[in-house]
Amino acid sequence: MAFQRMWRALGALFLIAAASAAFMAAAWAQQAVPALAGRVIDQTATLSAGDRQALDDKLAAFEQRKGTQIVVLMVPTTAPEDIAAYANRVANTWKIGRRDVGDGVLVIVAKDDRRMRIEVAKTLEGAVPDLAAARIIDQQMKPAFRNGDFAGGLMAAADQLIARIDGEALPEVASASYEQRSLMDVDWEHLILFLFFGVLIGGPILRKLMGAILGPLAAGGLGGLLAFAFTSSLVVSGIAGLLALGYTLLAKPASFSGGGGGGGSGHGYGSGGWSSGSSSSSSGDWGDWGGGGGFSSGGGGDFGGGGASGDW
Predict the structure, then answer these.
(1) Cβ neighbours around 112 below 10 Å, total
(2) So what's the pLDDT on residue 279?
(3) What value, to the nearest 5°, has the Cα angle with vertex 73 and ends 52 and 164?
(4) Cis peptide before 171 (omega within 30 of 0)
(5) DSSP states of 253-275 as a string?
(6) d(CA 9, CA 21)
């Protein structure tokens, strides 16, 4: 009996492991959700820079006026998923739309599959019901796409979506001062990392090169200038400058010993033993905004599958 129970337990464990492996294989086969790098993301190199900018300008102006976020994504294919499943997964990952409103729309085109979809957040399903989304696909996108005019089809679809959402009673866009808008547009994660490691490495070097007084002053000035360049805020730049000044005053001067033709320890600066690793960012670096210029998700879209799909 004990032997039979052991085999049954082993069999159950094997089935669980097999099911887990199958689940992991299916998840691995899915395409990764691309980084939300702008309002218009074209991974097929179909749209020209001017087309992307014109479409982005239209969507940005609408977002500034109405608050609703509309994002356009072009990919070669959504395989192994169908476009509806892929669009829903991307939209719920990105969470476009205002946090407290959830007013987001994703327009996705799978060029090699010859498929497109308009994915609508729950808040906007009244303004853009499934039938209206299907009509936009059939009347604006499909004819233009068949003629190879992807930019024209996307612009026409954006016009129709904007017209329909304009008629929806949504909360007004909260007003903000210039200082507040500047701070909200900052990519704080990249800025903090840049300033932190820049001061961590650069401060001791400046102190070594310029001395115990001029080095910290130079580090504080550079830290403040960099912070002001990214935030346009005198308060933030002042704080960053003081932090850089204080750290460099307390840090030990950098040591340039070691190295020996590349066979050294790999630290090089002797100021804490930090090693840089890779210089690239995991989400597109600073310049990969697709013409967006500081765009980020509102963090509010809840997408329940509303919208429509089509082909051409």
Answers:
(1) 11
(2) 34
(3) 85
(4) no
(5) PP-----TTTTS-S--S-SS---
(6) 18
